[in-house]
Amino acid sequence: MLGPVLLAAARSEHIRRLVAGMPLTRPVVDRFVAGERLDESLAAVRSLTDRGLLVTLDHLGEDVTDRTEALRARDAYLALAEVLRQEALGDRVEMSVKLSAFGQALPGGEDIALRNALPVVEAAAQAGTTVTLDMEDHTTVDSTLAILGELRARFPATGAVLQSYLYRTEDDCRSLAGEGSRVRLVKGAYREPASVAFQDKRDVDLAFVRCLKILMAGQGYPMIGSHDPRLVAITEELARQTGRKPGSYEFQMLYGIREAEQRRLAAAGHRMRVYVPYGTDWYGYFMRRLAERPANLAFFLRSLAGR
Ligand code: FAD
Predict the structure, then answer these.
(1) pLDDT tens across 161-191, in order?
(2) CATH code at 257?
(3) CA-to-CA distance for 19 and 190, rounded, in angstroms?
């Protein structure tokens, strides 16, 4: 099983330096990452919004090891929010944030991450948009949901991500299915032990459907973060059954993955949001994309071999 190996490598500083130093890595990374700089990523954003797609922008970064780095991550998001305000993009573009980039794993990290997230969420509101808190490994879920609660007390539209591979997630879906809640449901991208997460893909998919039913039947705004054609079809069917109109939920997919399907859903009248990562700290994100699909790894290795 290559996936777990790649997910372990995603956390290795040694392998990060090795992969980042390979001259042919860049073209493969470019398939999943919109650019290193904000202005480069804005070109990608424009080409998506011009085609009727919505966007969530992620300034790449995670697992910071000191407060200065966390402040730098916060400032990158403040700069992004200011650009969204100036360019009047707030109705089409929101922001996705990883709290580990804001210092969540440092001593006293929950307070630090909350203090860094608050001004970002505030700046997003001033730009007419929202922030969604990405979900990282299972050790962060309680802390992330606690920070979400604090942020939602002042900015109720702040969104969360729930991962169907965790046993706890059905309960979390019930807690977050109320009015005004925005939840992105995903399968989950980290390497998790059997003590907390389903290991079998089929169980993860079945759990996704159970969670989806809870969210679609609830009063909140479900965001379906999956490229899985069966889950897209089940969402459409559940929308019919629950009487949800297209504007009351949305599909989300990652930049560079199943682009024709993204355009098809938008053309069919669905709200379709593309998760667009940008920045220099692409390693962890890139390795998780390789782990999800062996064909990506083969593509990467072929490019390294110069074919
Ligand atoms: P899969 O069964 O993995 O894939 C279904 C099909 O989609 C595949 O057959 C293939 O055709 C295509 N596909 C899927 N992945 C790839 C890929 N990497 N490259 C090429 N084709 C692919 N996970 C988290 O843990 N936390 C988060 O905060 C988070 N945010 C996300 C935000 C969005 C918008 C999306 C779409 C995903 C996010 N994820 C997050 C990742 C998610 O957990 C899954 O790892 C990822 O979406 C793959 O699962 P899938 O539902 O697409 O289904």
Answers:
(1) 999 999 999 999 999 999 999 999 999 999 9
(2) 3.20.20.220
(3) 19
Pocket of ligand 1 contains residue 28 by CB under 6 Å = no
Q: Name the token pair of 262.
A: 């993204």
| Phi and psi at residue 212, to the nearest 5° | -60, -40
The answer, yes or no, to whether any atom of ligand 1 lies below 6 A from the CB of 292, is yes
Number of domains in the chain: 1
229 domain residue, yes or no: yes
* Catalytic annotation present for 184: yes
The atom of ligand 1 lying closest to the CA of 208 is 51
Give distance in angstroms: CA of 227 to centre of ligand 1: 6
Please compute the mean of the pLDDT values over residues 70-91 and round it to a whole number.
97
Q: What ipTM was predicted for this assembly?
A: 0.98
Whether 134 sits among the annotated catalytic residues: the reply is: yes
Out of 184, 273, 288, 289, pick the active-site residue: 184
**Amino acid code (one letter) for 12:** S
Residue 88: burial class (beta carbons within 10 Å; 0-12, 13-18, 19+) = exposed
Q: What is the pLDDT of residues 261-296, one digit of tens each?
A: 999 999 999 999 999 999 999 988 988 998 888 778
